[in-house]
Amino acid sequence: MTATDGPADAGAQDAGPARRRTAPWIAGGVGAALLLLVVVLATRVPADQKPVPSALVGRTVPRLVGTTLDGQRFDIDDQRGRFVVVNFFASWCVPCRQEHPELAAFVRAHAAAGDVTVVSVAFNDTPEAIRAFFAQYGGDWPVISGDTGPAVLDFGVSGVPESYVVSPARQVVAKFIGVTQAGLDAVIADVKRQGGFTDPAPGPAPAPTRGTSR
Amino acid sequence: MNTALGVAGIVLGLLGSVFGTLVLGVGLVRRNPTMVRSGRSYAWLVLAGALLCVVAMERALMTDDFTVKYVHDHSATTTPALFKFATMWAALEGSILLWALVLAGYTAVVARRERDRFADPLVGWTLLTMLVVAAFFFLLLAGPANPFTSVEVPPGYDGPGPNPLLQNHLLMAFHPPILYLGYVGFTVPFAYAIGALVTGRVGEGWLVGTRRWTLFAWACLSAGIVMGAWWSYEVLGWGGYWAWDPVENASLLPWLTGTAYLHSVMVQERRGMLRVWNLSLLCATFSLTILGTFLTRSGVLDSVHAFSASGIGPMILGFFALIVAVAVGLIGWRGDRLRAPGRIDSPVSREGAFLANNVLFSGFAFVVLLGTVFPLIVEALNGDRISVGVPYFARMSTPLGLALLFLMAVAPVLPWRMASGELLRHRLLWPSWVGAAGLVLAVLLGATGPSPLLAFFLGGFAAGAAGRQLVLATRRQGWRGLVGRANGGMIVHLGVVVMAVAIAASSAYGRTTELKLRPGETAEFAGHTFVFRGTEQQVLSNKDVVSATVEVDGRPFAPALNRFKFGSMVIGTPSVASGPLEDVALSLQELPSAGSDVVTVRVIVQPLIVWLWIGGGIIVVGTALSIVPGRRRDPLSPTSALPGDGVPAPADPVGVVG
């Protein structure tokens, strides 16, 4: 990969005493190509900050109603006009621990603006374990526990963690398997730029789907 | 305690490599031999640092010291001892630690072996290069990949254990260390190449030494790759052994360029040609190991077994850029001066065949690299997200593989410089009969399809050529006809042929189905009878195992599903029976659910799979034999084989290397 001068130069050397200066040119060309590759690689977004494809993206969000740990009722329909991040997780799941600080930072960053609601849906879990989880890893937002099976089925969750970003127009705009703050912000910025959230009526509006930004 | 020990080890290794680099650098620039000689001892400091880290890490793992973050995140009290030990390389930070250890080991061995030659600036620059690489890996350990961060643990804490997939098979304990011996081993020839470029001394002398290093690294990498394929086949239960996944490609890339080097270096030793090309191949091989590390550890690519993303990506990419800049710069600066006179007399000659070999292997490496990074390039150009799948790699690698088989058949019988048609007819007679026999046998056994049939013919042809050489050599030299570069190389060729035939047969004639069976029910598939007897549940300390007993032609199979505590996934354990002609693999897909007693079992029947692992073993044995010094050549004997001479390439021309 570093050089392509070999086989050619083997036969090119009987020309006489004057050695042709070919090596700097070939090395320069190869170096430039590799520099381009490095630039491409350096500007890539890590794969885990990118949304993954899902049949749900572009559709209206499924019904999500439940009781939070604090005993409050949570209904996603009450969140119209705000972005909602629906995060399926479990306190026993290792990747969930890894993404949790990112989610917590995301919540903190949007606390002042108040434009985002994060709701976690616990899967196969107990309230005590969830409370211990939040005590250890930080964060404070509504957690729906109890019988979350129907929600899991409606969203088509295949494993934890999975997160869905819902636009103010109640459309699912992205799905993540493991979130990062930057990845969530990129999707939200994308939807805002496309103006997809100004129309609160759920309709056949073109779906702002996966972001192309980085 | 373990944290302190580990951090001390990192500091020791980092300081040792940085000061060693400085001392050697100053000594070399000022031409101060005493200083250069003293630089040698820093290699031992680096090794001591790496050993200290590894001992601390293993101690923490074995004693469940959860105050060490790495143990906290990746181990559990219930993990069996063997897998606790292997957890060191089950996640990102630990794998960098393993890398540092292997690299420190190699550095110390180089310093020790070259202890009498430190007056030679080439050796000084070689060691300096290795210490720079070591400094980089210790820098990773000190910064973004520090495994010894300490954490507060609540009383009674138990960790999650390593990834369930990584505690399911014995091979996990061996595959990574051996793969790393290969990966990291390519640092040594790279360092010699840099030394040669800096000093401008591309004599053939350093090559003889590096050939051994490269052979050792190459054998380890080959073994590591085959073991990885074997693990994948035994554990993942989809019947395959190679998926062209980025991580697999990352290990294949340096293997391809390393293989090219092992062949073209012989042209340099015999004819003095291709010097710049060989240096470039060594630089490319090492750069590709670093690029592979970046691709699999920075999180830019989705992969089933990429490490989870971390902050080390930019540092590795920066290091890759540095290596490329240094290597390309040195080659551009020195290239013209190092180029050798001479040209290849005829394309139908040994050196012509080696050239073709190099074109094919480099092309193969380019194809694999392109397929691996293509999604990233497309995304950079227009933002689309695409994936390059198995069909691309299969379509590209089949013709390349067949062409390589053809070369393997023809090249060993070609003499250096020029071949006459009559000589070729004479020497190729026997191998082509073996090829024809292979083809007839395959057809009689029911083989169909152009590519597999061509593979069987060319495989037989190549095996015939390798066998011919071995027969002639042993007839003349007895057991010594099996050692040395040329003869050991032929044994490696036989191993490659065995693997190629196994790959062609298993990928062309594999059959798979899913059986839904009630207890006592019988099914037929691919000439086998399957009877489902019932399920059995077992509760172990770290997992619950449900296995289904299925009798295949009367032999009991027990494919199982494992649910690990703390894990969100269920991992299957396939049950595989290997035979010389055919493998039957069963994997449990679904257990009886409420109201039903039906299990779903996937059955995969593939021919000749076991020969993949046997072929891999032959390759390793052949490489080992080719490292053993062969017949010493009389310095007065002509450098080219005489016409009609059965052994065209005499063994290692110098014999033992200092």
Concise summary:
The complex is a heterodimer of chains A (214) and B (658). By secondary structure, chain A is an alpha/beta fold. Chain A is built from 6 helices and 7 strands; from the N terminus they run ααβββαβαβαββα.
What does this structure look like?
The complex is a heterodimer of chains A (214) and B (658). Chain A has 214 residues and is an alpha/beta fold. Chain A contains six helices and seven strands; from the N terminus they run H-H-E-E-E-H-E-H-E-H-E-E-H. In chain A, the strands form two sheets. In chain A, strands 5-4-3-6-7 form a five-stranded mixed sheet, covered by helices on one side. In chain A, strands 1-2 form a two-stranded antiparallel ribbon. In chain A, helix 3 crosses helix 6. Chain A is elongated and about 80 Å long. Chain B has 658 residues and is α+β, with helices and mostly antiparallel strands. Helices cover 60% and strands 10% of the residues of chain B. Chain B contains 19 helices and ten strands. In chain B, the strands form two sheets. In chain B, strands 2, 3, 4, 5, 6 and 7 form a six-stranded antiparallel sheet that branches. A four-stranded antiparallel sheet of chain B has the order 1-10-9-8, with helices on one face. In chain B, helix 1 runs antiparallel to helix 3. The C terminus of chain B is likely disordered. At the A-B interface, helix 1, helix 2 and helix 3 of A face helix 11, helix 12, helix 13 and helix 14 of B.
List the helices and strands and how they pair.
The complex is a heterodimer of chains A (214) and B (658).
Chain A: H1 6-10, H2 23-42, E1 65-67, E2 73-75, E3 83-89, H3 94-111, E4 116-122, H4 127-137, E5 143-144, H5 149-155, E6 162-166, E7 172-176, H6 181-194
Parallel strand pairs in A: 3-4, 4-5
Antiparallel strand pairs in A: 1-2, 3-6, 6-7
Helix pairs in contact in A: 3-6
Chain B: H1 2-29, H2 33-39, H3 42-62, H4 69-74, H5 81-86, H6 92-113, H7 121-142, H8 175-185, H9 187-199, H10 205-236, H11 246-271, H12 275-297, H13 313-338, H14 350-382, H15 390-410, H16 421-444, H17 450-477, H18 485-509, E1 511-517, E2 522-525, E3 528-539, E4 543-552, E5 555-557, E6 560-564, E7 570-573, E8 575-578, E9 582-590, E10 599-607, H19 610-627
Antiparallel strand pairs in B: 1-10, 2-3, 3-4, 4-5, 4-6, 6-7, 8-9, 9-10
